[in-house]
Design a protein that fits this description.
about 140 residues; Four Helix Bundle (Hemerythrin (Met), subunit A); mainly alpha
Length: about 140
């Protein structure tokens, strides 16, 4: 009987660890976005000459992170049942809306990355920033 309880405890621990992976990956990606976002903010402020290559590089990195990010919400990683996350239940109850928000964000990031001049970059980046705020408003809350 003691062996069965030990095995069940190990299985439960393994399940919890397996579910923590996507959550930790989501958090890591959000932190990794800080670097390219800092570059993009600087480019959008016009504090120096516009660097199209730097804009493309930053936006390409953001796109890659977002493409990975949107796949890290498997069933079972929603808030509650001991899972601490800032993701709201709306990600799972409105999966189509969450996907649409990511698609729009990626499209705007690609548009910003393709900008040939600062004015085009600023317009696309502002739209992208709006996408961030809109998504966070619906799909991100306080850690639960």
């Amino acid at each position: 009987m003691k062996k069965i309880i030990t095995v069940l405890a190990l299985v439960a621990a393994g399940t919890t660890a397996a579910l923590a992976g996507p959550i930790e990956d989501r958090q890591a990606i959000m932190k990794q976005m800080a670097g390219p976002m800092k570059i993009a903010v600087g480019l959008s402020r016009g504090t120096g000459p516009y660097d199209a290559a730097a804009a493309k590089s930053a936006m390409d990195e953001i796109v890659a992170h977002t493409e990975k990010f949107q796949t890290l919400f498997p069933k079972g990683t929603e808030p509650g049942n001991g899972i601490k996350t800032q993701a709201t239940a709306a990600i799972w109850s409105d999966a189509a809306g969450f996907k649409a928000a990511n698609v729009k964000f990626i499209a705007d990031a690609k548009l910003a990355g393709a900008a040939k001049d600062q004015q085009a970059f600023i317009a696309a980046f502002k739209s992208m920033q709006g996408d961030c705020g809109a998504c966070h408003k619906v799909y991100r809350g306080a850690a639960q």
